[in-house]
């Protein structure tokens, strides 16, 4: 199966998103690289608005991940309360 | 009665789809004259799945936030003379290659996506292409501004556009983008949207920016990562275009396959980037080639489920993963002198479309 | 007591890029200048376009207008990407608050039903006209010469797409997010006699080959008239006819049009004052398209505001053209 990945700028805001990813995707692997946090998982990866909001301590807008996003691989499925990347095969 | 709650998908659909209409007073083919000459068959534009559901409002909002942060860093970099913090002055040669080689390509991509953003019949695809076009304008301008400070203290930046149009080793990226821009809208979308943005950009820019951080160049890291977030949207557009074309009609498969073969070859053999990453960085993160092989082996998902095969050139490369950046650079040197490909019989400058 | 702070300075070896220095002299440049001037590639193209084999990839001959220097079309707003998105972001924040307020206070429900019908019939279909505007400006971005004008054209194009979405949002605000108003508005766009002239005009503009002619037909002729009809005359009408609440939702389009006109006025002026050739060419285009616009807008203006409205709008267009030295 193919791996999906998502990478964020290594800053204070991304920290919470990555923590939420780790919570909701238990097999995900997080790599810390210069100025970048990269997360990989087999098949798919989901970011839940509620989990991130809980981590941050206030309402988080899913689309605001664009501000810190660097890159990703996989097909995207996004809605008001989640952002998911996956491969269909 | 309180208004119905609309989720992102529904809202986006209502705000964007169905804006277009069937013409009655003019022939729609006159308004969109380039949709058919490449042989691509579109049976139903409604099957297009919008990769990112960004309304114009959200676009302005989030991009503005990114710009504020980006320019704050540029200002700080200039005020602190950040160029004195790089590992070694010779590192700066890598970003000279960037401004002269890559930045004009961003501008070319901007104009190319403006073209497809006007010429494609489906509004969903057009909007995505137009957003990419304005993103690419963002990239060239933020790159010019990032390098502006370096330009004040180092040679080799100040005639970037003049050089791009004239130097032999810059003819490689120039030729790449001009080949794409002179193609029809669908080939352009596959060439740049898929082959360049989806396949290459992660291999090129992400490690390049990481390398910049490793070498202490905060200005480049900042615009690179900030730009790369736009690239995430671009990549999904590239993935969607290939999926869409292959699902629209079986006759599209041989055409798209031929484009994949051509463009993955053109992109992978770009020695400029091999030089920039493998050879020039004082502290290197590994060669482009090694990363290409790793990536194409690990993440073939995009192509596999579409029945298109991994470009045969990658298959060959897989068998020889251990070359150094210098070898890449030299092996491409000879290719640099032959920027024209036979696929379109364009050696004499007159383009002839041969679709098999 | 004087305070002396010791600093160590680093003297730059040059102030800006060479092409900027050639234009403006050896001094620090503005961000607008560095982002704009001489960015278009001009030499040694490797291929000819398959879709236009008589010309180069970037070619000034894609318009009949001739400029000694296309970079004379400097944007008075000095928008490059950064300031553009930041400016529109502020405007959209305002608009977002307005829409939220309108929904929260149930202003859509308290609108009288004949006014609601009128808006759905005669305002919401503008969302389709804005698509044509988006495409016509995008055409200029792709084929125009020099980043000074092409960047302003893409900003205009994206603005118009934003407008299309705002008009759609007005519909949703009036139909409780069901989308019914949008379906009805589309029917009006396709078959209501009030709109057929405008639809025909829009379709025709999309077949124009010369990108500056498209700019004239869209941004100068049609837009001046539509802006006056909707953002001045209809604005007044709404104020007098219990429709003030709706103005909350149209504020973005109004403010944006004013901002954009600063730019398009400047483009027109520079092009027209460059030479008699340009002035004559632009006049010829204006003559053709204003006749078409007159015919196209008559039924719409009548339905929206009454018989005098279009003449008033044309007076505004005359004034605009006279200001830049064009006498029609």
UniProtKB/TrEMBL annotation, chain A:
Pfam families documented for this protein: MmoB_DmpM
UniProt entry tagged with the keyword Calcium: no
Protein name per Swiss-Prot or TrEMBL: Monooxygenase component MmoB/DmpM
Recorded family membership: Belongs to the TmoD/XamoD family.
InterPro entries assigned to the protein according to its UniProt record, in alphabetical order: MOase_MmoB_DmpM, mOase_MmoB_DmpM_sf
One Gene Ontology molecular-function label: monooxygenase activity
The keyword Oxidoreductase is assigned to this record: yes
Keywords, ordered alphabetically: Monooxygenase, Oxidoreductase
Source taxon at top rank: Bacteria
Organism: gamma proteobacterium HTCC2207
